[in-house]
Every structure is written in C-alpha cells, then in structure tokens.
Amino acid sequence: MSETATFSRRGKLRFYGWGYADEDLTAEEIARVQGSARRLGGAAPVEVSVPQIRDFELPPPRIAVPAALAPMMSATPYDRLVHSLGKSFADIVRMFMRAVSSPPDWVAFPKSEEDVAAILEWASGANVAVIPFGGGSSVCGGVEPAVGDGYAGVVSVDLQYLWKVLEIDRSSRAARIQAGALGPELESQLKPHALTLRHFPQSLQLSTLGGWIATRSGGHYASLYTHIDDFVEATRSVTPAGILETRRLPGSGAGPSPDRMMIGSEGTLGIITEAWMRLQDRPMHQASASISFPSMSAAVAAVRALSQSGLFPTNCRLLDPVEARNNHVGDGTKAILVLGFESADHPLNAWMERGLELVADHQGTYDSEAVARSLAPGNRAGEHRQGAAGQWRNAFIRMPYYRDLLVALGVITDTFETAITWDRFETLYDGVRERTQTVIREICGHDAVVSCRFTHIYPDGPAPYFSYSALGTTTGDLYSSLAKWRQIKLATNEIVVGLGGTVTHHHAVGRDHRSGYERQSSPLFRQALAAAKAVLDPGAILNPGVLIDPIGRSAPGRGVLG
Ligand SMILES: Cc1cc2nc3c(=O)[nH]c(=O)nc-3n(C[C@H](O)[C@H](O)[C@H](O)COP(=O)(O)OP(=O)(O)OC[C@H]3O[C@@H](n4cnc5c(N)ncnc54)[C@H](O)[C@@H]3O)c2cc1C
Fold first, then answer.
1. Partner of 45 for a Cys bridge, out of 176, 196, 424, 474, CB 3.0 to 4.6 A?
2. Torsions phi, psi for 531 (to 5 deg)
3. What is the reported pLDDT for 1?
4. What is the pLDDT of residue 454?
C-alpha cells in the first residue's frame, strides 16, 4: 500500500501543516521567513526536517468495525494522521515532533445521511467516541481525538462526501447545502446561478460549511454579516437520539432558536449534515481605500465612528502600527485602515465619500487618486486592490503557509481574538499587549512582537485580533517550544477574559479555550447545555472534552503533548 493511501476524494494534503502537498513556498518566501526567525533569535536556528508519514508509528485500531460499516472505514496511516490533529500551533509543532498521541482508531467517510446515522448508532452501542470532522482547520483542539480512557475507541467522521448544493430557492435567495462542502466547492456550485454565500474565512480553501456552523466562524465581512450565524436559515443534524431539523424561516419569535443551539455546538450535540443558507448576489461594485493615521487612538476613534455610521463597510481592517509593519504596509509609526465597500446593486461613491469624511475627521489621510481609481465604473472584484490593501491581502493569504516553516525553525507564532465594547477597548488593548509581553518575557526569556488588528466591528465594539511571535528554541528542541506555548495560551485566555473580553470571537472554544470559556460563562448555562447534550447524545460519545464536559464524564487532563 502506498504511503499516502486514502479513502479521501480530495487532493493530497500536507498532513502535518497547512495546504495541499504540492503547494510549496517559493525560494524568496523561504528566505524571508528564515530572515524573520533569525531576527527574533539573533542567530540561525536549527530547522527541524519536514515529517514523513513513515516517521510515525501508529498503534493498530483498538476496535473492530461492523462489516456493514467497513467499506466506509479507513485505517490507513495517511487518513489517521490527517484526522489526528487540527491546524493550531500546537498541532503543527506536534507533527514536526512526530508526536501524535491520540490518533483516531478509524476514519469514517460516510456517503449519505443514513451512513452518518448508522455510524452513530454503532458508536453509541459500542461506547466509541465520535469526532465530527469537516476540513480539520480547527485551531483550538476541536478535532483532536484526545478523549481519555473512558471509551473503547475513537472514530473521526469526515463529511467530505456530503459536498453538494442540493437545491436553490432563487426567489428567497437561499440554498440547501451539504455540510461537508469546502468553501471553494460550494462557491463553484453557486457561481453558475450568479449567487454566492460570500463567507470567506482565511481558511476558506480547507474548511467546510458544517465546520463553520459548528464553530460560529467569522468571514470577511467586517460588519453586518460577521459570523456564519447571520447566513443560517435552517439546519439538519443527525444526533444519536434522532434527526433534528429546523424549519426554514426568515425570522421567528417562537421561543429559543433551535438553530442557535446547533450553531457553535462544536460537534458535541449532533453532526450537521446540511443547512439552508441565505445567499448574496455577486457584487458588481467594489471600492477600497488605504488610510493612514498618526496614532492608534486616532484610528480607533475613526473606526468607532464608521461602526456607528450605518454605512456597514464590508472591509474595515484596522492594523495597529506593529501589525502594519509586520505586514510590510507601514514603517511601524502609523496605524493603517483598509476600508472597503461592495454592492451587487448600486455604485458606492456616496458610501466611500462619507466614510472618508469620517476618517478625515480623525486625522486619517489617503491617496485620493487611488480611491478614485477604485471607484471607477466597471471596476470589479479585486481589480482595485492596490497599495496597502493589495499587499495586506497577499500577506494574509500566504501567512498559514509561512507558519509551518516558522514552527520548524523553533518560532512560537500564534494569534488570539476577542471582542470588547468600545468603552473598555483601550484598557483591553493596552492591557493585553503589556501583559502578553510580560508573560512571554517570563516564559521565553526575551521580548516578543505583539500586534493587533480589527477583524470585525460592531456599533458597540470591535473584535481585536492579536498576533505574537517569540522564539521557543534555537536548538530544534520543539518540546520546549510546545511547553512554552501551552503556558502562553493559558495566560492569554486569562488575560483577555480578565479584561472583560470573550475568550474567542470566532475561533471556537474547543479544548484549548476552555479555561477562558469556563471563566466567562455561567455554570448554570453550562449545566443547561450539558443537560441538552444528555438528551441528544445520551452515551456522551460526541466530541467529548470539547466545549463542556458531558454529565458524568470529565475531560482528560492535558499535558504538554496534549
Ligand atoms: C490558517 C487558518 C485560518 C483561519 N481563519 C479563520 C477565519 O478567518 N475565521 C474563522 O472563523 N476561523 C478561522 N480559522 C479556524 C477554522 O478554519 C474555523 O474554526 C472553521 O470554521 C473550521 O471549519 P472546518 O470545516 O475546518 O471544521 P473542523 O476543523 O473539521 O471542525 C471544527 C469543529 O467543528 C466540528 N464540526 C465540523 N464539522 C461538523 C459538522 N458537520 N457537524 C457538527 N460538528 C462539526 C468539529 O467536531 C470541531 O469541533 C482558521 C484556521 C486556520 C488554520
């Protein structure tokens, strides 16, 4: 059997990191990333070699599967490795360490909803834990089969064969879409109908509709439609207790929303198999501007004014001076705002003009000619992206590819995102940067680069997204990098929640954000959620350890290796 034997219908993935196996960095990119690692450490760090499948010794599956399910069950090393971890820093570093302690015993590839139900029926009876798996792009331990010893085994259920757009309702502008469709797959099926979901997380290429709904993912719209929640019209899920289907409605006042219960349930209540999604017409008009501010506080005042103006910009990405410098769109002295509008219906001149008036009120400056070019009639998607906006976008798309190499070079690089009301933003912004710097200095013994951007804005506050890079090791000792990362993660969870923010704005709770989630949420609410789980999943087989502990079972403790 070949090393990469698989039941998957998708292209071969880099099982250890981000992207497809044939997507390599250019020589120029490699040199740039190596340069950044050197700048952090002052010397050339040891680079750990890229893992190969044969480097891993996986134990044989602990359980046998029934004959009726066998044709959809894979135990090939490639399939088990792809489903062993997600794509967080900790996941990638463990792959480079060749340290995968909890591979799934089997990976199931159901071809229909009936298959999903049959897997759950068998697993419930056999005390086998089930991990729903979309694209596996979780960055919080959401797909890791680390369920402890209380289960006979673990099966990861990959929804990739459920990838079709099943029905389109043109008059309501909605579509019924299967949960396992990757972002590009569902967009390419909607395109011939001149429709789009336009939910574009940075992970679009390798994440699925079901994963977005299960994690309340955040897309590229900066305002108005920030989370996938805003596009969900109805859902259908298979639970161990039966099918849970909701009614298609544009709105409803009939009690708590059952969709809202499934949205964000992170695979703990059921497997979402399809959803009716609200769609958009494809944008015909787009305009953007790059605006520079002498200080972060001036830029924040401008963004607050924009958020409360009713203009609802599609893009309103504020980069603090350090973030701007890291993305090569500034020298580190100015905050940069990338402001954009789009519409399928009308030219955007009035929106942009008013937006620019608001930023000018707060010392924002911009290149009027570039803005005029972006507003020119006939200018369509992407064509206007010039200057800082274009450079920022390129860096944004390539960033996940650079991360694999940074990990191999011993750099700890991660992000954490939150949301906070405007009245507490400044305290949070100063507090997070200062305390994260202190924590990293204590843990790593040197200063770190901590930067911030806004991914989304609301009339009552922004969603700040923090990034940091620090040196974990110069000797290739990735265990030390990982141990330091775990300490930093626990500290940043505590810092953002302690300062009044949420532990996550759109990356979900998973396993890695549970400490913050437990601090910010009411125990009574978590008990109510656990009681709902006990009804839908009486055997507590679905994604145990993620989000909440099922009644009567507690999550296994987490060591450095997970
Ligand atoms: C480089 C990179 C960039 C990212 N950018 C963004 C971003 O811009 N915005 C954002 O919100 N997130 C982002 N993420 C995080 C991640 O992509 C999201 O959490 C995404 O929604 C996960 O989708 P997925 O299909 O990969 O789900 P998976 O990772 O497979 O699963 C995530 C969780 O959902 C559950 N799940 C998956 N499918 C189903 C289903 N059908 N039914 C029930 N439960 C299910 C899993 O059990 C797990 O708990 C990024 C991640 C990476 C690595």
1. 474
2. -70, -40
3. 72
4. 98
Enter the tokens of residue 200: 């574009």
- The tokens describing 343, both together, are 């519409």
What are the beta bridge partners of residue 106?
Answer: 155
Contacts 24+ apart (CB under 8 A), 254-260: 259/232, 259/234, 259/235, 260/229
Sort 194 into a burial class: Cβ within 10 Å, 0-12 / 13-18 / 19+: exposed
The CATH class of the 285-380 domain is: alpha beta
pLDDT number for residue 555: 81
pLDDT score recorded for residue 420: 98
How high is the pLDDT of residue 383? 46
Would you list the domain boundaries of the chain? Answer: 285-380
Lay out the sheet containing 128-133: strands in order across. Answer: 73-74, 106-108, 153-158, 128-133
Q: What share of the chain is helix, strand, coil (3-state, %, to 5)?
A: 35, 20, 45
* Contact call for residues 513 and 495 (beta carbons, < 8 A): no
Task: Tell me which residues of the chain have a pLDDT lower than 50.
Answer: 381, 383-384
Give the per-residue pLDDT at 379: 66
pLDDT of residue 136: 98
Hey, what are 347's tokens? Answer: 């030219």
Residues with CB under 6 A from ligand 1: 18, 86-87, 131-139, 142-143, 159, 179, 201-203, 207-208, 210-212, 214-215, 217-218, 266-267, 271-272, 400, 506-508, 543, 546
Find out whether 409 and 34 touch, Cβ atoms under 8 Å. Answer: yes
Inter-axis angle of helices 296-307 and 349-360, to 10 degrees? 140
Mutate to test the pocket of ligand 1, among 202, 231, 398 (most ligand atoms within 8 A of CB): 202
- Check residue 387 and give its pLDDT: 63
Q: What are the φ/ψ torsions at residue 19 (nearest 5 degrees)?
A: 95, -175
Question: Comparing C-alpha atoms, which of 439, 442, 461, 459 is closest to residue 450?
Answer: 439
Residue 104 Cα distances to 78, 482, 508, angstroms: 11, 22, 22
| Residues 6+ away with beta carbon under 8 Å from 6 | 12, 74, 76, 78, 79, 82
How many Å apart are CA 122 and CA 311, to the nearest integer? 52
pLDDT at site 396? 78
Tokens of 22: 């044939």
